[in-house]
Amino acid sequence: MRIFFLAALLAVGSKTYAQEQTGQSQVVKSQQQQVVEEVKAHEIELSVRSKGTGRYLKRAEVKVGKEVYYTKPDGKVIIKIPPQGKGQVLVQRFAYEKEFVSYEKLRAFSAADVFLSPATPGDNEVYIRGNKRPDVSRKSFAGTEAARATASGDPAQVTKTLPGVQTSTFGNDIAIRGSGPNDSQYFIDNFVVFDVFHSIGGISVLPDQLIDEVDFYAGGFGPQYGNATGGVIILRTKNEVPEYPKTEFRINLPFYSALYHERPIDDASFVATSFRYSYLQYVLPYFIPKDAGATVVPYFGDIHTLYHKNYESDGYFKLLAMGSQDGLEAVFNYEDAASSEGKSTIDIYQGFATLGAERYKPLGSGWSLTMSPQIYYNRADNEIFDDKLKWDFLVYRAHTEFKKKLSKKEFIYLGLDPGYATFSTDIVIPAPTDDPFFDFEEAPRKVSKRRRDFGYASAWAAVDKQLGSLILTPGLRYYYDGYLKKTNVVDPRLAGRYEFSDDQKLKAAFGLYSKAPEGYESDSIFGNPDLNYEKSVHYVLGLESRWNEKWETDLQLYYKRIFDKVVSDRETAYSNDGSARSKGVELFIRRNLTDRAFGWLSYTYSQTEERNNDSESWRSAEFDQTHVAVLTGSYRLTATWDFGSKLKYQTGNTYTPISDSVYNATLDKYQPRFDSDDVNSKRLPDYHQIDLFFTKDSLFNTWKMSYRFGVQYLAFTKQVYSRSYNYDYSKEEDFSALPPIPFVEVRGVL
Amino acid sequence: MRYVSWGVVLISLFGCNESSDRFEQVLSLRALGIAADTFVAIPNSTVNLTIHAAVPKDNDVTAEVYQDAQSLYAILVPDLELVDSGSYTEYDNFRHYQLAARFVVPDEDGLRALGWDGSSALLRYGVSLSAAGRTEKVVGDLALDTADSDAAAIAWTTPSISSVEPAVGTTLGKGSEIDLKAVVEVGDDTYKYGWFVSGGEIDNRRSLDTKWKLDDKSKQNLILTVRGKVSKAFSIEVFEYDAQ
Q1: Interface of B with A in 202-221 (CB under 8 A)
Q2: Could you tell me if B150 and B168 lie in one domain?
Q3: More confident site: A200 or B145
Q4: Interface residue B3 vs chain A (CB under 8 A)
Q5: Dist. CA A240–CA A190, nearest whole Å
Q6: From A172, A294, A443, residue closest to B5, measured CB to CB
Q7: Could you tell me how many helices (H) and strands (E) chain A has, helices first?
């Protein structure tokens, strides 16, 4: 492929040879000779640039015969070439292919650009991740690394490949160490969002160009995070000032188009903006069978603006404004909720907007301050069959943390996160139940239209204390939630790391993790206002090893007990009577990022059980996947070809077998019946999935086209998502997976 | 507050489900509906029910009382009585079975002992029908309220099926697809319609205006049921056609 990139690219300079006959020879010779050579020497200003971006390259080496020149910081150098005869100028630089340009070509110009093609990267330079606050179960990924590791190029997707994570076979739900999808917290920087994934398409709400890093905590995290019994996912926005403006447009088939632009404002600040919108709604109708009698219009979009400024020795400031929306409009024939015309309709809209500012400032004497005030607005407007679920949720937050450096490895953390929320609802929905075959058509309706204003706050304190090779981090987190009757909770937590050496660390954590019930669960109309916080105790023991610069492993054992778990209750709608427990072993083998290759193998063995009250026996939980193994990686074949893959295997999901059915004459439908001892007692066949994808760059002088293509959901055998049944539940069959889905994405980067 | 996973909705609508059973095809014992002689059960009142089913020719139905213990929302009727063993109306492709049953609504104390809180609720009754090697457990609900309640004062009406197209007596084409329409006199309720056929396929069995792709039988039967979503009112008509 390199033949494409070895072609010499020579741009025309603006000045003529005749106008440039003023150069002076640097060689001292006889005056006569000197005069001759001054006439003969051809002086030319050479600009050495990177092909594909047009970026000027400093310290590039330019050889003219025995003379050696180097480009200045602006990428330019003035060279002299013989006015007659044949020869070549050699231009070379580390990480680029050599380029030869003939004297004949250069003599025609007084200024010229030489574009160097990137060389096939080496595999020796390992990217080092910066030191962070010690946390037992955190995994961090550079945005570029994470983007290369996933078929969609979406860095946030890596969280679904990590130890401790169980995912549904279809959809975006993530269960972390036995805790459900709603039991984890999601952030963009220090700004809270209710989810980092779009409901349609599953991509993250932040484009990959804006993601600098992805942090994932499987549990045992410090007191800086709360209101979660599961894990924490954080997308961190970029903070490096780009050298040049960049504009990128993207067409992703079959999902969306995107436009991104970033530009430096000065040496210390930049602004980036992005807009994405789906066209799935225009594509999908061609794939829906005409006899399905259905129209389906899913859509999503998001918009972002990021401003970042670094202050010399005075921290940074960033401002993020973003909005995101997802929607689905559908009309179709559906037995259960048909109108008098025999049609059912769904009209779903959910979106959020947030404006957040973050200021990090060193205060002196080892103290620093990070303030992250945020306004967050979340809106839902859902009409599902004859029901509606609408809300407006407005939150003002003022996340603030002080940090004091005591020594190289010792810190004090003090944080406060006060907030004030306005929550308006307009709801008609079926009464809640945990029944696995809950029939929304049959359920009585709950109706509410109200507004609640309430304040909440959390505060935390932690200290890293070094005792020889041991670093202990005791901490406390306090919660106040004005939405609940029982408002005050304190979570004590303790983490420790024992460093056998720089490369071998034994780590452990245990602590209490509380989570407030969902708003609808503690609502006085829908739920139970007497609900208390859900509680969880995490125990984690791990061994982190760095075998060499490229290879690391992390082995962890965990046990988690969840109590006061919110479950549905026939008398009170919801109660804190539920409990769950989860235990497992996780192995993470990581090949660190180099310019050429990286990847990881994650394996999780776990058991998760739950029960609705203490008198019940334990049963497998919905997300109990005994074995989950993911092998993912990327390899740069050449400077412009990249290959990535993901292989995933997981134990089949649990499901509740149907033992009988009744014909409900009032509803004209059959309803399944099950044995209460059989809840989640059966499993679907084990699931596996293979994603293969390539990236190809076509380099032009000052811009490039990137093509990302591949196929997802490849499998050796037909995969099963769930069970399906005939109309009276007398026959059971596989609800099979979608066929492999090819995708193509074209990016133009200017 | 979290986002729902809408992909699951989509895939459930258009996923690769290989089921070929058709709800509307009456090929074995099939329950069709239950009519009650009242719209609201009042404590101490008697409620009379008629259970409708279709049964293959030359088969008799045996019936017994059934209690649906997994009912999530309704109070179970404690003492349902089957009045007789049922009667049959003969059609070319099946027998229309009608079974009379009744129950006395307990008094308020008795209802409270069953879990009633004195407000609007549902009563659930059930029978088990068996014929030709198949058993259908049939349940139904009826509104429960006090005599002086607003619910008891509503003057619900039972819908009536005025006409159907193709009209009875029309000769249909075997294997053809025909337009199917019905006119129903309804009251102040929302209604759920349900077509059943002796063979072939209904395009949308919940619509009064749909299509019927016939099979190759020379005698075709069509059943239309109408249910009031709130009143629980129920009507049923059976139609018979020749096909060539």
Answers
A1: 203-210
A2: no
A3: B145
A4: yes
A5: 18
A6: A172
A7: 4, 45
Residue B185's SS3 state is: strand
A-chain residues near B3 (CB < 8 A):
172, 194-195, 197, 199, 326, 350
DSSP class of B28 = S
| Contact (CB<8Å) B204/A342 | yes
Asked, for residue B26, whether it belongs to a domain, the answer is yes
Q: Could you say which of A171, A342, A438 has the minimum Cβ distance to residue B206? A: A342
pLDDT, tens digit, 9 for 90 and up, residues A589-636: 999 878 788 899 999 999 999 999 999 999 999 889 999 999 999 998
Nearest chain A Cα distance for residue B124, angstroms: 10
Name every chain A residue with its beta carbon within 8 A of the beta carbon of B225. Answer: 668
Q: Is residue B213 part of a domain?
A: yes
CA distance B181 to B170: 14
B7 domain residue, yes or no: no
- Bond preceding residue A134 cis, omega within 30 of 0: no
Class of domain A2-116 (CATH, top level): mainly beta
B55 and B145 together in one domain: yes
Residues B123 and B206 in one domain: no
Asked whether residue B101 falls in the same domain as residue B183, the answer is no
> Could you say which residues from 128 to 167 on chain B have a Cβ atom under 8 Å away from some Cβ of chain A?
136-141
Q: Is B66 inside any structural domain?
A: yes
Which residues in chain A are contacts of B207 at CB distance < 8 A? 333, 338, 341-343
Contacts with B159 from chain A: Cβ below 8 Å: none
| Domains in chain A: boundaries | 2-116, 138-234, 235-749
Check if the beta carbon of residue A741 is closer than 8 Å to that of residue A202.
Answer: no
From the list B70, B73, B136, the residue facing A443 with the nearest CB is B73
User: Into how many domains does chain B fold?
Assistant: 2
Residue of B nearest to A349 (CA): B3
- E strand spans, A592-703: 597-611, 619-620, 627-636, 641-650, 654-655, 660-664, 669-673, 682-683, 687-699
B88 pLDDT exceeds 50? yes
For A180-199, b/e burial (b = at least 16 CB within 10 A) is bbbbbbbbbbbbbbbbbbbb
Question: Would you call A532 helix, strand, or coil by DSSP?
Answer: coil
CATH assignment of the domain containing B40: 2.60.40.10
Q: Please identify, among B154, B185, B209, the residue that sits at the C-terminal boundary of a domain.
A: B154
Q: Do A444 and B232 touch (CB under 8 A)?
A: no
Q: Which domain does B115 fall in, by range?
A: 22-154
Tell me the CATH class for A138-234.
Answer: mainly beta
**Could you tell me which CATH class the domain A235-749 is placed in?**
mainly beta
Whether residues B29 and B143 share a domain: the answer is yes
Instruction: Say yes or no: B137 and B166 in one domain.
Output: no
Q: Does B43 touch chain A (CB under 8 A)?
A: no
Would you call A661 and B72 a contact, using CB atoms and an 8 Å cutoff?
A: no
Cβ–Cβ below 8 Å for A340 and B10: no
**Predicted confidence (pLDDT) per residue in B26-42, tens digit:** 999 999 999 999 999 99
Q: Which residue of B has its CA nearest to A288?
A: B14
Which of B6, B28, B139, B223 best tests the A interface by mutation, with the highest count of A CBs <10 A? B6
* CB-based contact A338 B207, cutoff 8 Å: yes
Name every residue whose Cβ is closer than 8 Å to that of residue A409 and which is 6 or more positions away in sequence: A464, A466, A471
3-state helix, strand, coil in chain A (%, to 5): 5, 55, 35
pLDDT tens digits for range A318-331: 999 999 999 988 88
> Shortest CB distance from A736 goes to which of B16, B66, B126?
B16
ipTM of the complex, rounded to two decimals: 0.94
Please list the helix, strand and coil fractions of chain B in percent, rounded to the nearest 5, in that order. Answer: 10, 50, 45
